[in-house]
Every structure is written in structure tokens, then in C-alpha cells.
Amino acid sequence: MFISVRPLYRRGLRLSASEVKCRRALVGWLVLQPDNLKPHVLWAHLKAEDGHDILSKLYRAKVVECRGPDGMLITGIDIQAKGRKTVYEYEQAWWCEAPPRQEPFADAVERRRRAVEANAAFEQYLADL
Q1: Do residues 100 and 27 touch, judged by C-beta distance below 8 A?
Q2: R_g (Cα) of the chain, nearest Å
Q3: How far apart are CA 40 and CA 89, in angstroms?
Q4: What is the DSSP string of 12-70?
Q5: In the predicted model, what is the mean pLDDT of the chain?
């Protein structure tokens, strides 16, 4: 599924709502894949067109909440390797939206500015007819 993803945690710490809303979403293909040794355990990948991972994979991925057209929440464990012997495991959650939304959420002033620009462009289009 082609979606946009907003990670909700950084190194196991929950990001604030304003941080999540202001960050640009990552867009790619969501792949839920069973583990080779444990078929009941899923890995979640966000892949680019060429097949490489955009985000680090989520181990033990679960679709926790699905809000229809508003999006879905996937939780899991983000495994970060540091060197050959050290591995860190962090709690992670992704907010996924389809169709993808890459632009950050706009505040009220920005929404008003965009509406005025769109209205001016439409007025110009009508004048050109």
C-alpha cells in the first residue's frame, strides 16, 4: 500500500503532538511481512520504489487502530544496531495515511493564506476565460 508515515517516537521517547504535526511525512510502500523463523510475528517495512528501506523496520508490528480514511496506527519495536555486538530496542509507533500526505499540517494562518492564493488563482482562471 502506498502511504505516508509519521514516526511517533524517537529512541523510545514519545514526540510531542506539535513535533509530529510539523515534521514532513515519509512516503513509500508499506510491507507487512512474516518473520522467517516465527510466521506469527510480523515485520513492517516502509520501502522506496527501488526496494530499499526508508525507515528502520518494525519488529513485532501490529495494526493497533484503523480509523478508515483518517489513517491507521502501527506499533512495534525499532531495532537499532550499533556496531557488531550492541543492539538497542526502542518502542516505536507509526501513524500511516493513504493517500499519502507529505506536507506538514498547516496552522490556521497558513491555511488562510493558501485559501486566499487558491481563490486568487481561480479568479484569474475565470478572468482568462
Answers
A1: yes
A2: 19
A3: 20
A4: TEEPPHHHHHHSPPEEEEEEEEE-SS-TTSEEEEEE-TTS-BSSPPEEEEEEEEE-GGG
A5: 84
In terms of pTM, does the model score above 0.90? Answer: no
User: Measured between alpha carbons, how far is residue 120 from residues 83, 103, 113, 124, 127 in Å?
Assistant: 55, 22, 11, 6, 10
Element (H, E) at 94: strand 86-97
DSSP 3-state of 1? coil
- Pure H helices in 5-107: 17-22
Amino acid present at 112: R
β-partners of residue 91 are 77
pLDDT in tens, 66-92: 888 788 999 999 988 888 888 889 999
Longest pairwise C-alpha distance within the chain: 68
